[in-house]
Amino acid sequence: MPFLQRWFLPASLALSACIGGSGRVSDVSRDVGSALPQEDPGIAVLSLFWRSEMADASGDASPQEFASPALRLGASSHEDQLFVGSHDGWFYALNPISSELVWKVKTGSVSSRPLVHRGRIYVGTDDGFVICLDILGEEQWRYATRSPILGEPIIAGDALLVANEGDQVYSLDLETGKFRWLYKTDSDEEFTLRGHSGLTLDGDMVYAGFADGSVAALRTTTGSVAWLSSLRGASERFVDVDTTPIIAGDMVVAASSAGGLYALDKATGRIRWSREVSGGGGLVASDDTIFFAAAEAGIYALDFDGNIRWRQGLRGGGEPSQPALRGEYVFYGLSEAGLFVAKAATGEVVQYFDPGFGISSPVSLGRDRLYVMSNSAILYALTLN
């Protein structure tokens, strides 16, 4: 298939849904592909800065790439570095201004975002390794967890915490990679989905979701359980909490694929409210709004009491990636449709970028640019105008 790249400003695209004067929620679901107009974008939020092919996806009939880049900020933008893995097993360091390759090393296939901290890069691989590299790409240590790592590692004090698809959370010494503790749940693999929750740190607690439909608050020093809550609802199958929990005020918000969206008391795990939304995806929150992406159901904006402010239907666009916020806009990818830019206040789509194979990777935001990997393993740098 030839490479496609299209920009649209879909002013007439009827995908947005907002609360009108009557207080009723307009709940519009449209076929993404058939609704896109073929017209010039006009004034754009994003413009193309550069594109760089990171792996060869020409042999894949339906390529898919989940790796997401991380930016190391220098004293100025000219000293920044960009790090990203790929499905072909190479891990890259790039100049984020020129896209010039600085170095690359073989790590194994990567479907996650690396963590950059104090001159070191920590990355999880699809074969279950946590690898620590220095800023020149030299390996410092590695630790085998024996199950794919799909989320970004996090740091808690002098420990590195990482979750894998085997429903395990590991704590490793940040400097040496030495094992500290392990938390594990037992799930029925017959009824689980591909994917896994990442980790969210808040104070001395780390929050994680699991394939059995539970969310746990773990003490970072010992891995002991402060509380454990079920998000299964009435569902028996495919209850996986693959959504990385987020903090919204004094709540932990997470979603079960079949069980719905839940807000839990951060201190006790007690359910504050829930919404019956299937196909749970990524979450992000502003000071007063929760944005939730769910396959087919669409993108939701809810207040902290769980009231829906708007919903944008996404039927036919594929699985949504983790949303990201910057200023007045929310950015999200669809695995079969591309990158969307919408107004955070209303859900109105103001721009659309089609790389030809869709986007499954979460976007990464830098100083004044957005970075995202397409399913055909092409990394894009897009300027925020």
Structural notes for this entry:
By secondary structure, the chain is mostly beta strands. The chain contains one helix and 34 strands. The strands form eight sheets. The chain has a five-stranded antiparallel β-sheet, with no helix packed on it. Strands 2-27-26-25-24 form a five-stranded mixed β-sheet, with no helix packed on it. Strands 3-34-33-32 form a four-stranded antiparallel β-sheet, with no helix packed on it. Strand 24 and strand 25 form a beta hairpin. The protein is globular, with a radius of gyration of 20 Å. It starts with 5 loop residues before the first strand and ends with a strand. The model is unreliable at 1-5, 9-30 and 33-38 (pLDDT under 50).
TL;DR?
The protein has 385 residues and is mostly beta strands. 1% of the residues lie in helices and 44% in strands.
Note the topology.
Blueprint: E1 6-8, E2 27-28, H1 32-35, E3 46-53, E4 70-72, E5 81-84, E6 90-94, E7 101-106, E8 115-117, E9 120-124, E10 129-134, E11 139-144, E12 154-156, E13 159-164, E14 168-173, E15 179-184, E16 199-202, E17 205-209, E18 214-219, E19 225-230, E20 246-248, E21 251-256, E22 260-265, E23 271-275, E24 280-285, E25 289-294, E26 298-303, E27 308-312, E28 324-326, E29 329-334, E30 338-343, E31 349-354, E32 364-365, E33 369-373, E34 378-384
Parallel strand pairs: 2-27
Antiparallel strand pairs: 1-31, 3-34, 4-5, 5-6, 6-7, 8-9, 9-10, 10-11, 12-13, 13-14, 14-15, 16-17, 17-18, 18-19, 20-21, 21-22, 22-23, 24-25, 25-26, 26-27, 28-29, 29-30, 30-31, 32-33, 33-34
